[in-house]
Amino acid sequence: MVDVLLGLQWGDEGKGKIADFLTPSYDVVARFQGGPNAGHSLEINGKKHVLNTIPSGIFHENCINLIGNGVVIDPILLRAEIEKTIAAGADVRSRLYISKKAHLILPSHRLLDAASEKAKGDDKIGSTLRGISPTYQDKTGRSGLRIGDADSPDFKKLYTKALEKHISVFRYYAFDYQEELTRLESQWFEAVEYLRGFKQVNSEFFLHRHITEGKKVLAEGAQGSLLDLDFGSYPYVTSSNTISGGACVGLGLAPKHIRKVTGIFKAYCTRVGSGPFPTELNDETGEFLRTKGHEFGATTGRPRRTGWLDLPALKYAIMLSGVDELIMMKADVLSGLDTINAALSYEGCSDEEQCPFNIQGTTVTPVYKEFAGWQEDISVMRQYNELPESFRNYISFMEAECAVPIRIISIGPDREQTIQKK
Ligand code: IMP
């Protein structure tokens, strides 16, 4: 039996905290897409940890953590992350499993990301510059390297062949790559060797065996549904499928094994990088949300763009992934506002096409509903019925609009600040 946990907006919904909260009831946590562009923040015993590629169950004893075939791995960054996580007390050696089919981010992929973004000028995607897109391009172009290839005596040859192609692209961009490539290459080969000391498996069989044995699996997504390669605000998207279907291909999982899809959303919206954001607030309320919500990238430190909750976009994400239950994050950030808005629709868009083909900011005007705010500090509350009436009204409205129950409300980073709604 597999449950899927996804972000329903533009990423940074707080999947790390929730995955950590939920993992004690799972035997396996499996990451199915993305790479070190993700940053999942967890707070363990009052200490903050950021995971980029390692699944969020790593701090739990007896939890198997699988990096799936759909993930792209930067050996240098994964090695550093493993060392940091071991130093923080997690038994990574026994708990981490890596799919042999996961593709490798080469040093030249990182540089290609930088070269491509530079060449795009004002149209840049705002990539995290971790080499994600060039690596997935080589995967679909059938010239990528997988971590299992490191066992081959021809590994160096495969690497050189891939690099030669990349060098021709650097020449096209007139991009100065040599110094940085030389700096990274030896570290990269050392890190690949280091990762060979960890358990590398044929993950589809490994996962299937655990499912057949009746183990409980949590498939963990990264980024958010609106950054999905096919359904996000293309081209301002990431390079993998972040919706629930991505769990099937990113793990070798048959759809019939999925029991439940849980979607996480923030009580407002944020986005990093470029691209349309219809409910964006470029005013003091936007600044209030950014400052109070600590809305700065966990991976890049970039300030996040902030805005009101966008229901057409949320309902679209729910539809794409067949979300069964919702988790609302960071509701405490809204405390202190006199009124709160949420976009109910976009002007001129029919019900059938709530999210138009191209949601460029200038062509989409949100229609808002205004809600009464609340002044109480809800971060100290522990029961649903303690919450202010105006907040409970806001929750009931969202549930009715989305036709999906909100099961958990998070009101702060700590595990304790998590209210389960019956
Ligand atoms: P890339 O995935 O690094 O190529 O970046 C593509 C777009 O996705 C950019 O707008 C990034 O800011 C965004 N992005 C990638 N990973 C994350 C994430 O984990 N959280 C939020 N945004 C992300």
| Helix proportion | 25-40%
What can be said about the biggest beta sheet? Answer: 10 strands, mixed
Strand order of the largest sheet: 9-7-5-2-10-1-11-15-18-19
Number of helices: 12
Number of strands: 19
User: Which class of secondary structure composition applies to the elements?
Assistant: alpha/beta
Bound ligand species: inosinic acid
Mean pLDDT, to the nearest integer, reads: 94
CA radius of gyration is 21 Å
Low-confidence stretches: none
Estimated share of beta-strand residues: 15-25%
The end-to-end span amounts to 23 Å
Structural shape: globular
Q: How would you describe this protein?
A:
The protein is of the alpha/beta class. The protein is 32% helix and 20% strand. It contains twelve helices and 19 strands. It has helices at 15-22, 75-87, 92-95, 107-120, 132-140, 155-173, 178-195, 203-212, 244-251, 284-292, 311-321, 389-402, and strands spanning 2-7, 28-31, 40-44, 47-51, 64-67, 72-73, 96-99, 103-104, 199-201, 217-220, 258-266, 269-271, 305-307, 309-310, 325-329, 339-346, 366-372, 406-410, 418-420. The strands form five sheets. Strands 9-7-5-2-10-1-11-15-18-19 form a ten-stranded mixed β-sheet. Strands 14-16-17 form a three-stranded mixed β-sheet. A hairpin with a 2-residue loop joins strand 3 (40-44) and strand 4 (47-51). Helix 2 crosses helix 7 and helix 4 (107-120) packs across helix 5. The model has no long low-confidence stretch (mean pLDDT 94). Inosinic acid is lined by residues 10-12, 37-39, 125-128, 130, 132-133, 222-223, 227, 236, 238-239, 272-273.
